[in-house]
Amino acid sequence: MNAGYSVSLQKVIDAHELEVVYLPKSANEILITSSEINRPGIALSGYTDYFDPRRIQILGWTELCFLENMDCKGQKEALGKWLSLSPAAVVVTRGLEVPDYFVSSCEEYKIPLLKTNDVTSSFLATLIQYLNTSLAPRITRHGVLCEVYGEGVLIIGESGAGKSETAVELIKRGHRLIADDAVEIRRTDAHTLIGASPNNIRHFIELRGIGIINARRLFGMGAVKASEKINMVIQLEPWDATKAYDRLGLDNEYTMILDVKVPVITVPVNPGRNLAVIIETAAMNNRQKKMGYNAARELIVGLGMEDIEPGEKELEIWKNS
Predict the structure, then answer these.
(1) I need a labelling partner for 52 at 20 to 30 A (CA). Which of 112, 117, 237, 280 fits?
(2) Does 11 participate in catalysis according to the annotation?
(3) Active-site hit among 163, 176, 203, 225
(4) If DSSP codes are grouped into helix, strand and coil, which group holds residue 274?
(5) Using H for helix, E for strand and C for coil, what is the string for 42-55?
(6) pLDDT in tens, 143-180
(7) pLDDT at 87 over 70
(8) Nearest-angstrom CA–CA distance, 167 and 170
(9) pTM for this model (two decimals)
(10) Which one from 142, 172, 217, 261 is the annotated catalytic residue?
(11) Backbone φ and ψ of 119, nearest 5°
């Protein structure tokens, strides 16, 4: 899943405030390439057939007590067979004292050794979440990402469609900007997309006729956010009088991003349309649909048209409007 991506061990250390016990070289030069982690109890007992050396190894009270119950020869053999496989790094949890023989073995096999005061289970959870995000598959899409009423809305469309201008209007209405122009999208699990801005253009917006502005400095810290889950996509396109646009919204349309299905709405752009208000309404309506309420379906049932074919419902309502 994470092939081709890596994160330096130094970033892992900084993110989790880990204590360095031993490093064979600079932590910036040590790359972590797997989001999977391992508790090496089975490996310490001698079974290493399916051992993955790319994983960070986590040792808690159980593993250290297992080693303490061995004699010196058994400890050396168990650690030697395990560490000779060159695991990416070893972290001892709960602030436990690392025995001298353990440190010596890590130095012999040049394995990074770290400590944390966190209990094992909570550290496992935070580390897995961090690695899933840092090593997630990713793409960059041209568009704007805003948080609107808690919904992550990705606004896409051709250049000049009004994406950045709409983002400024949304900011003025109390919503938050995540990214303008380039949106870096990561798939953190099979159903979740997280959007963020590349570091070098974070908080900047390009407005034709004005130039580049810094949304954080202009509107304040409350106007921006580092990242947000992508809940829906708004496709802006020039109004086409010959095209039949959805007037009911009875069924969701979807687009695929990194193999994740995301609801998409096409909004025609026409002079006089308040795109910010439309996007606010779309975000709230999308949240209602996720909670099981569909206004169009309620209308259809109220009109007694639930037995009419989907394509005929809009035509019938249009005739009566």
Answers:
(1) 117
(2) no
(3) 163
(4) coil
(5) HHHCCCCCCCCCCC
(6) 999 999 999 999 999 988 899 999 999 999 999 999 99
(7) yes
(8) 5
(9) 0.77
(10) 142
(11) -70, 155
Q: How many CA atoms lie within 13 A of 209 on its CB side?
A: 4
- Provide the pLDDT for residue 318: 46
pLDDT per residue as tens digits for the range 26-77 = 999 999 999 999 999 999 999 999 999 999 999 999 999 999 999 999 999 9
142 catalytic? Reply is yes
Quick one: average pLDDT of 202-213? 93
304 - beta bridge partners? none
pLDDT exceeds 60 at position 109 = yes
Question: Known catalytic residue: 203?
Answer: no
Indicate which residue of 208, 229, 247, 290 is catalytic. 247
Distances (CA, A) of 66 to 3, 77, 83, 127, 205: 34, 13, 16, 24, 57
Three-state SS letters, 286-308? HHHHHCCCCHHHHHHHHCCCCCC
Q: Is 163 a catalytic residue?
A: yes
Residue 309 burial class via C-beta count within 10 angstroms: exposed 0-12, middle 13-18, buried 19 and up:
exposed
Catalytic residue, from 55, 175, 180, 181: name it.
Answer: 181
